[in-house]
């Protein structure tokens, strides 16, 4: 959390503000699975005193924990990224029917522009489909205020609430005034009420009626409460908007009339009609799907929206201005320079594994994590990647589809955290259905992609306490995999030998690559060898460059340079290891036939 | 300057995030409304990283529009060029001379552009190339490059040096505060040697 300054005015990210809002609302239990851009909510919330916060193995479990806490009369929070909502959808659709006791808020953090996601889905559809009301803040200050409000409303209307955020809300920082924590009105404790909490068909039928009545009550709230507000301006242009798009509208059209929707669902019919009647031209500005636009048009109102504003990607003031005015501003074209995509870190243990898989020409069914970056050149290490946990099922599918033709070629790769999130069921499927795929668990002992979160295999909880550490070898054996082999991925020769053998095996097998993520503090603090290229020995063959390690740089030569350096005139350059970057993983020395790469104690 | 846009560009792992925090806090504590936006996720992994900072009496959009940045601070030389179109006419570039090869250059597929400086000067009127890496290495703290750059850039912003130093004191644990204060001050000397200050 940021350091408080004068008058409790601090600079908070949307995620920090949601965490603060939950704390101020008296939330006692929070459960989540990390996922960009939502991760920092729980990390920050966990720092407050007197709260319980945990990483669950996946989003479905996280929501189930929050439901239990709510039933026990405690305010509860569950956070996830948009694709996590898909995983949690099963309990979400039914908790809509049970309602709550303690306030229950589910944060869905969307990622327009897919800064770090595999799709661009719009979570507002879940609010409509699950009949769960949704608030949508437009900056950090509202993120705090709306979080507090969502808990109050959750209890008042007996419903879980969604809070929708997007990357630009979650990770942008803005000034926020801190408030004081409240004591929630609900008294913790078990209150038995099976007609409300046990969703047998006969109970669920009655609850569905209540859900529909609740929605009507929420529409009334949306019409009158001020959560949706009109900012009067010129008659010429009226804009309906919400979320971060509101900010872009205010910059692009300071003169326009604006209907700012703080509640993304249900929408206020009368308010929208009244607003529309005060303006000559009605435009809906929203990121991603035409959710508001469709509703506005369903009211029979004439409005523009996605015909002017793109459906793909993030907006900004320029896109909004140009979309609505139709006038493009001429700008200097961007300079062309070499691209700079993200890359596996120097010393990353995954690099060794993917180098070997590349050499073996394996068909790789990949998963979501840092190692997805191995799909980029030079490793080109992935042929398929769909969603968390999908690698294993997909590999099994390829083998079943092609039979002998695929055998001995296909592997699934999956991280430690992802395996526990939703990969384990895929492995059970392979064993149960007599597959013979090879599954590689990349155990770097942390949930690395989202910034190093603990998980059930790391031996530590979110709050840093020691806990049971899952033993992957024993776990895989218990599922019924007879062939389980841990390897050190930095030792590429040994890894290659084991993989060759296991990929050929006519039985399910699991290879576990065990080496810590280089971003872990203990790993960083160790005494390490740093490697260097001896310039006299390097012939510039680039064999080492094929690893793609960011520390291995290329120094091009002209023929004159080559002559001066005593090299063959045909040599076009040589490599150099950047000592500030090398992590001493020892993967590159064996690649150099000329023994030009040597290590020394740093 | 009562309002303005600062664009920060760097490479994952260079500490652009801390630099942007320092700048934003300095403005907030000096009475401005501030918004700052960056994207995490891939930030640790060597990709291009950008941060938008906007300050003023009231700030709406957390994003800077292309062509409207008053100051572009680049932590890596080529990244200055990649984002120079964000600069407003008359805007200032403060760029670190440090070069970090992107993957295609590492593998010798394309060269690191040799004419970065000339193209920067052609694209922007006021360009200060500063060697913040050497300044940090002289202090034996390579991670202080980012704070040295904040020092160099601070000349072109309306706050006094104390505002940034206070932000450093608020932000950093005592263990690393002194070396970062020294890096800030060393950085502040850098533009002068490049032919002048604001
Ligand atoms: S260090 Fe060895 S492998 Fe790398 S380019 Fe030089 S000779 Fe080839
Ligand atoms: S030892 Fe080689 S591969 Fe490993 S980090 Fe150093 S330069 Fe990169």
End-to-end span of chain B in angstroms?
12 Å
Tally of contiguous helical segments of chain B: 8
> How much of the sequence of chain A is in beta strands?
15-25%
Q: Please outline the major beta sheet of chain A.
A: 7 strands, mixed
Order of helices and strands of chain B: EHEEEHEHHEHHHH
State the shape of chain B: globular
Number of helices of chain A: 20
> Helix share of residues of chain A?
25-40%
How would a textbook summarize the main sheet of chain B?
Answer: 6 strands, mixed
Question: Uncertain regions of chain A: pLDDT < 50 for 5+ in a row?
Answer: 1-5
Uncertain parts of chain B: none
Name the helicity range of chain B. Answer: 25-40%
Question: Approximately how much beta-strand content do the residues of chain B carry?
Answer: 15-25%
Biggest β-sheet: strands ordered side by side in the sheet of chain A: 3-2-4-5-7-6-12
The quaternary structure here is: heterodimer
Using DSSP, what is the number of strands of chain B?
A: 6
Account of the 3D structure:
The complex is a heterodimer of chains A (602) and B (198). Chain A has 20 helices and 22 strands. In chain A, strand 17, helix 18 and strand 18 form a beta-alpha-beta unit. Chain A is an alpha/beta fold and 602 residues long. The two termini of chain A are 35 Å apart. Chain A has a 7-stranded mixed beta sheet, with helices on both faces. In chain A, strands 14-15-16-18-17 form a 5-stranded parallel beta sheet, sandwiched between helices. In chain A, strands 9-11-10-13 form a 4-stranded mixed beta sheet, with helices on both faces. Helix content of chain A is 35%, strand content 19%. Chain B has a 6-stranded mixed beta sheet with strand order 2-3-1-4-5-6, with helices on both faces. The mean pLDDT of chain B is 93. In chain B, helix 2 links the parallel strand 4 (69-74) and strand 5. In chain B, helix 1 (16-29) packs across helix 6. Chain B is of the alpha/beta class. The interface between A and B is large, with 65 and 54 residues. Strand 8 of chain A pairs antiparallel with strand 2 (33-38) of chain B. The structure holds iron/sulfur cluster (SF4) (2 copies). One iron/sulfur cluster (SF4) binds next to strand 21 of chain A.
């Amino acid at each position: 959390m940021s350091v408080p300054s004068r008058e409790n005015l601090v600079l908070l990210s949307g995620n920090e503000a949601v965490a603060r809002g939950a704390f101020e609302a008296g939330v006692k239990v929070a459960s989540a699975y990390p996922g960009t851009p939502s991760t920092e909510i729980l990390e920050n919330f966990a720092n407050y005193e007197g709260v319980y916060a945990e990483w669950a193995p996946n989003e479905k479990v996280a929501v189930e924990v929050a439901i239990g806490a709510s039933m026990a009369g405690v305010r509860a929070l569950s956070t996830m990224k948009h694709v996590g909502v898909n995983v949690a959808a099963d309990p979400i659709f039914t908790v809509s029917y049970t309602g709550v006791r303690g306030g229950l808020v589910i944060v869905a953090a969307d990622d327009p522009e897919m800064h770090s996601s595999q799709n661009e889905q719009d979570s507002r559809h879940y609010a409509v489909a699950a009949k769960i009301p949704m608030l949508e803040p437009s900056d950090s200050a509202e993120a705090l205020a709306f979080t507090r409000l969502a808990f109050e409303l959750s209890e008042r209307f007996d419903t879980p609430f969604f809070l929708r955020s997007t990357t630009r809300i979650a990770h942008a920082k803005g000034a926020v005034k801190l408030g004081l924590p409240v004591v929630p009105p609900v008294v913790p404790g078990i209150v038995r009420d099976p007609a409300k909490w046990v969703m047998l068909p006969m109970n669920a039928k009655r609850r569905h009626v209540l859900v529909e009545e609740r929605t009507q009550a929420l529409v009334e709230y949306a019409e009158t409460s001020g959560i949706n507000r009109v900012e009067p301006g010129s008659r010429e242009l009226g804009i309906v908007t919400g979320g971060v798009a509101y900010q872009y509208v205010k910059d692009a059209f300071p003169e326009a009339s604006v209907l700012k929707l703080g509640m993304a669902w249900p929408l206020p019919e009368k308010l929208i009609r009244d607003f529309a009647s005060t303006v000559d031209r009605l435009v809906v500005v929203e990121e991603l799907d035409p959710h508001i636009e469709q509703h506005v048009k369903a009211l029979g109102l004439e409005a523009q929206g996605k015909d002017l504003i793109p459906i793909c990607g993030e907006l900004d003031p320029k896109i909004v201005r140009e979309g609505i005015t139709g006038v493009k501003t001429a700008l200097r074209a961007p300079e062309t320079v070499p691209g700079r995509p993200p890359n596996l870190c120097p010393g990353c243990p995954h690099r060794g594994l993917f180098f070997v898989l590349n050499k073996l020409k394996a068909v790789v069914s990949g998963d979501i994590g840092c190692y997805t970056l191995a799909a980029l050149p030079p490793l080109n290490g992935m042929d398929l990647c769909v969603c968390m946990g999908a690698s294993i099922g997909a590999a099994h599918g390829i083998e079943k589809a092609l039979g002998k033709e695929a055998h001995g070629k296909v592997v699934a790769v999956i991280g430690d955290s992802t395996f526990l999130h939703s990969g384990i069921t895929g492995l059970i499927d392979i064993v149960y259905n007599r597959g013979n795929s090879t599954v590689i668990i990349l155990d770097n002992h942390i949930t690395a992609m989202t910034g190093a979160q603990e998980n059930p295999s790391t031996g530590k909880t979110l709050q840093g306490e020691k806990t049971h550490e899952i033993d992957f070898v024993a776990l895989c054996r218990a599922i019924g995999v007879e062939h389980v082999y841990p390897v050190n991925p930095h030792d590429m020769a040994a890894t290659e030998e084991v993989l060759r053998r296991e990929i050929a095996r006519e039985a399910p097998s699991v290879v576990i690559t065990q080496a810590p993520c280089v971003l872990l503090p203990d790993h960083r603090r160790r005494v390490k060898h740093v490697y260097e290229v001896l310039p006299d020995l390097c012939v510039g063959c680039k064999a080492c460059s094929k690893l793609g390690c960011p520390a291995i740089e290329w120094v091009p030569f002209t023929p004159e340079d080559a002559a001066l350096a005593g090299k063959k005139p045909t040599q076009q350059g040589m490599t150099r290891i950047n000592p500030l970057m090398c992590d001493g993983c020892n993967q590159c020395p064996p690649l150099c036939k000329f023994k030009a790469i040597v290590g020394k104690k740093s | 300057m009562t309002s303005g846009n600062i664009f920060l560009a760097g490479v994952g792992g260079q500490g652009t995030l801390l630099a942007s925090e320092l700048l934003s806090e300095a403005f907030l504590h000096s009475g401005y409304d501030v918004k700052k936006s960056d994207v995490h996720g891939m930030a640790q992994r060597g990709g291009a990283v950008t941060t938008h900072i906007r300050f003023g009496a009231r700030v709406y959009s957390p994003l800077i529009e292309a062509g409207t940045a008053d100051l572009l601070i680049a932590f890596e030389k080529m990244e200055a060029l990649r984002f120079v179109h964000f600069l407003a006419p008359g805007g200032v570039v403060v760029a670190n001379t440090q070069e970090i090869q992107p993957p295609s250059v590492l593998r010798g597929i394309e060269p690191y552009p040799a004419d970065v400086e000339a193209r920067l000067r052609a694209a922007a009127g006021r360009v200060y190339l500063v060697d913040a890496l050497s300044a940090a290495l002289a202090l034996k703290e390579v991670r202080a490059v980012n704070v040295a750059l904040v020092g160099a850039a601070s000349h072109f912003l309306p706050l006094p040096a104390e505002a940034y130093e206070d932000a450093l004191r608020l932000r950093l644990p005592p263990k690393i505060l002194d070396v970062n204060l020294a890096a800030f001050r060393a950085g502040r000397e850098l533009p002068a040697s490049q032919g002048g200050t604001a």
